[in-house]
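agent> step 3/5: call structure_predict on target 'DUF2931 family protein' (Chryseobacterium rhizosphaerae).
agent> reason: downstream docking stage needs a structural representation; sequence fetched in step 2, passing through unchanged.
tool.input:
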Amino acid sequence: MMKKAKNALLFSLTLVLLLQIVGCHPKDKFEWNAAWSAPKFYGNGGPFVEFFYQGKSIAGASASIGADPGWGLTSGGYAGGDIFKPVPDSVFVKWICAIDGYRYEGGSRLPQDKMLSLFRNGWNSKGEKENYTQIIAGFAPGGNVTVWVSGQGNNKEIINFKAKNKGVWKESEEAEKIEKEILSSEKFINSEVNIYRYLHGVPYSVWEKGEKTYQYDIGFSSEENRDFYESVTAFSKDGSYIFLNENQFIIPYKDWLSNHITDGVKEGKLPVHTVVQWISEDDKQWYKGEIVFPVDFQNTFESFYKKNKNVHIVYVMDKLNPSGNYTFGTIWLQGSTSKERIMEFRLAKLNNETRKYDVSKYTLPKGFVVPKWEGRILLQKPTDFEYWQEE
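tool.output (status=ok):
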């Protein structure tokens, strides 16, 4: 009798344990978090997103201040919801656009079947299955919203929609006074953000229509035989960081001359602006530049892309002038059999004594014209903005 009681107790405990395990990961519920995003240089204020399933709130994310982490990337803030939850069938968002000062609010149904399939199947990375772990809502100027499912930096776009313009956001008189003082300050007018907006405007249509992607990569070459560390940070028109080759590769100069580039390509958007750093191995020579691409670069790229395979955007540095406070390079489009020159650029050399750059880090393309500003809030033209431009 005692043995039967023990067996019954053991069976009951086992059943409870199994139910707990199953309850932790029920069918068609997945481990994911809500998150929000904004384009680089085109941030927002007070972002808020909430996801729903069958009329019930299941997850959300918000922040008391805005940020511009990059289109499709996430920023810190409050996130809530159970660990395991169903895939949502609708979304609600609200935020204040930093470009226009408008308050946007609205929602949309979500293609749940499509999202459910993505969460079930995951995606393949180097022969192994990876899971999607986030649903991100991106807020862009003009009330444009994009929703992605994301995992390990891999974003899959789900839907685009427009939130309603609820009018100009009004704060207290004191808050508006402080904001006006910040935006009119010399520090902000000559900041990286304001200069970027001055050079690129507000590309409203790119968030409405989306941006094309291509199979290509970015490379780096130099006539110098010495060892240098290089990095190219690239931004697309919609405010995305461009992540192509995980380890941006050095192309031996002789291979660049002979078009012998064997590195593979990946899918990505085209750059409109890049930040280039070139640092000697002994850390004594630092060069840096911000390069604005020609306005018609996409047309040039597409024409070259149709005729060539294994296409790369290659930054080729000239030989250094040791006594100079800058150096030059050239951007090329390069395929397996040919190359096409895009533009020359200049990198400023860091003064090791003052720890400043003696010449401007900015390069503008030949014939560059500042775009018309379309934002509601007047953009202040930078007062301390110098640049080098190819004649």
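agent> step 4/5: record observation. The first strand starts at residue 29 and ends at 31.
agent> proceeding.
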